[in-house]
Amino acid sequence: MIINAIWQTATVKASSFEQVRVVALFKNKVVIVVDGKNRRTLNVQQVSPEGIRLIKASSDHAILEYGGREHLHRTSMGTTTGVFQKAAKKQANIPRGIDGMYKTIGSINRQPVPFLVDTGASIVAFSSVLADALNIEYQSGVQRQVQTASGLAKAYYITLQEVTVGDITMNNVEAAVIPTAPGQSSDTALLGMSFLSRVNLQDNGMMMVLEKKF
């Protein structure tokens, strides 16, 4: 029996398996192969050692559950057996510059922005000049005092819809916009911990690797 699998992979937490293949469908029964080696036969409501539960099965479709979500397999024309493959990890590889800093080009709200990785910054931060260039309305944000290299400064705290670095996209990222006179600010944004706390970070001295947490 030939099947196609439709999986909501974004909601699947880190698991004990990398791949599950459905190889046969029957009424109230399914046969799966996990990681290409562990063959499991599941009856309705039975759970495999990997935590995969069969909710429903017939000769043309099956519903499997993992991580509290239901995933549908259907029969289709063709010769390819339906497979769930765990999504590849999202990464960003940032080389160290000759100045010893890690800089990269990313985007804020889908507009390109130069970033400087700053693990000492508690939040993504950039100047009002850059905010204006990105058409970000920040004046309605919450005003707070922030510590900068030049001392205390006023900042507007806002939430960015989207920040992307490499293959990693984060939504609803807190940021601080610091009012700055035109011509007196950098066009570079600090990539602070409001983004970095949501990734795994490795620094080998020459390359900083960010890996999105699932």
How would you portray this structure in words?
The chain contains two helices and 18 strands. Helices cover 5% and strands 53% of the residues. The strands form four sheets. Strands 10, 11, 12, 13, 14, 15 and 16 form a seven-stranded mixed β-sheet that branches. A four-stranded antiparallel β-sheet has the order 1-7-6-5, with no helix packed on it. A four-stranded antiparallel β-sheet has the order 4-3-2-8, with no helix packed on it.
What are its keywords?
single chain; 214 residues; mainly beta; seven-stranded mixed sheet; four-stranded antiparallel sheet; 18 strands
How are the SSEs ordered, and which strands pair?
Layout: E1 3-6, E2 19-26, E3 29-34, E4 38-43, E5 53-57, E6 61-66, E7 69-75, E8 83-85, E9 91-95, E10 103-108, E11 111-117, E12 124-127, H1 128-133, E13 142-148, E14 151-165, E15 168-178, E16 189-191, H2 193-196, E17 199-203, E18 207-212
